[in-house]
Amino acid sequence: MQAFRSTGLPPLPRGTLELKVLPLSKTSVWTARSIWCQFISNIVTFFNPEMFQERYHYVNATDKFALLIDDRLTLANWWSIPWSLHMLGPEWGLQIFARKNNIHVFEGIVREYKLANVYIDTLQSKYGLNESLPAHWIHDVHFMLTKQFWMGLRGEHILILQDHGVPVRRWNTVASQVILKNIFEYAYAGAPWSFVERKHDSNSSKIDPTNLKAIRQDAHGLWKADGGGNGGFSYRKRSWMMAFGIDSSSSVEDLLNSSVESFNYLGHENEDWLWGRILSAHRHGVAPTRLECQFAAETLMECDGVLGVHNYATYHSVQDTVHLVQSAAKEFFQVETPIFRVRLTTERVARQSPWLNSWRHLKYYSELSAPMECTVPEGNWASPLRKLSMRIFGSLAW
């Protein structure tokens, strides 16, 4: 058992790790986010190449791929990528779409942990797009509505990842496999936005899902199709995306470059919201809410024991966030006892905190910003860490 841990699992902490919880008199959302920040800052120190050796066996031998689209310069990917690949298991490949200015960051992560079955592309090189794409174009991800985009992906079963949209349970366990088997029956599953169950209307299948005008709001503000869930951590079936994605019979470059403008008339900018309405017109297009609630959580507190989360700390209490990171850490280390000890404190910052030091070894990436959960937005209470000169820390929330 110990030999297996040395190759397939991270090393166990030498002592109990600590989560410091600020008094609740402070803005609760930023207190919960500081818990997540401490969690990822502690965990990032436990990754090692030995954890990922089995990935070599699945090169060109899997139809399951995680997909990360990121044009930012952030340290968060140094945590989220190895964490996600470890929790998903070696049978999941990874495809990354980056920009030229941050592709070196992803290449550094792959080298550091010797990650096999990881492919780094740019949208320009993969699809022949113009190098002068606007900065917001990748962030808005409207191109994910086009069938041409999905044609350029690897695998049939696609998991959308973000640095704050990650798995929190191991996916190669029996319990997780039961959920995934059910999820794979559908074309789309994301963190549900409500518990209102969507009913398939047999007449709705007559709507051409590639004609977005057919599912637009009518004169009464009602939609002809409904469904979906948050796309930041979501499952997509690639064959369905190619079958029902938008095709204007244009060249790939013309279609994708014009996507931002051409979708403006819909009155909504999020591709996950629109995919839900396209796919819910078909049976098995969108997973039922009860199943999505087993798959992922974002805003709903009732979705517990999920396979993954998206932006969890922003919408949940300190208690819920502590519960989540304790559970996720036990899954990560494969132990039964809690990894973290929670301690109430009035401290604003501890410059010598071990969790803070975890990012300092990446100082050679001086252009990178701190993870989102480790930043304090303007107007919130001041932190002495703002005075640190190293840009690597941004304005850390502690």
Task: Describe the protein in words.
There is one protein chain. The protein has 398 residues and is of the alpha/beta class. It has two domains: 2-46 and 338-393, no CATH class; 53-308, Spore Coat Polysaccharide Biosynthesis Protein SpsA, Chain A (Alpha-Beta Complex). It has helices at residues 2-8, 28-43, 77-88, 103-113, 123-127, 135-140, 147-151, 174-183, 238-244, 252-257, 259-262, 271-279, 289-295, 312-315, 318-333, 354-357, and strands at 17-21, 64-69, 93-98, 118-122, 157-161, 165-167, 188-191, 230-237, 296-297, 308-310, 340-344. It has a six-stranded mixed sheet with strand order 4-3-2-5-8-7, with helices on both faces. Strands 6-10-9 form a three-stranded mixed sheet. Strand 3 (93-98), helix 4 (103-113) and strand 4 (118-122) form a beta-alpha-beta unit. Helix 2 packs parallel to helix 15 and helix 3 packs across helix 4 (103-113). The longest helix is centred in the first third of the chain and has 16 residues, at 28-43. Mean pLDDT is 78; it is low at 1-6, 200-226, 258-268 and 378-398.
CATH topology of the largest domain: Spore Coat Polysaccharide Biosynthesis Protein SpsA, Chain A
Number of domains: 2
Gap between N and C termini: 38 Å
In angstroms, what is the radius of gyration?
21 Å
CATH class of the largest domain: Alpha Beta
- The secondary-structure class comes to alpha/beta
The fraction of residues in strands falls at 5-15%
SSE pattern:
HEHEHEHEHHHEEHEEHHHHHEEHHEH
CATH architecture of the largest domain: Alpha-Beta Complex
Shape: globular
State the low-pLDDT regions, or none.
Answer: 1-6, 200-226, 258-268, 378-398
Q: What percent of residues adopt helix (DSSP H or I)?
A: 25-40%
Question: Total number of helical segments?
Answer: 16
Largest sheet: 6 strands, mixed
Count the E strands: 11
Strand order in the sheet with the most strands: 4-3-2-5-8-7
Average pLDDT metric: 78
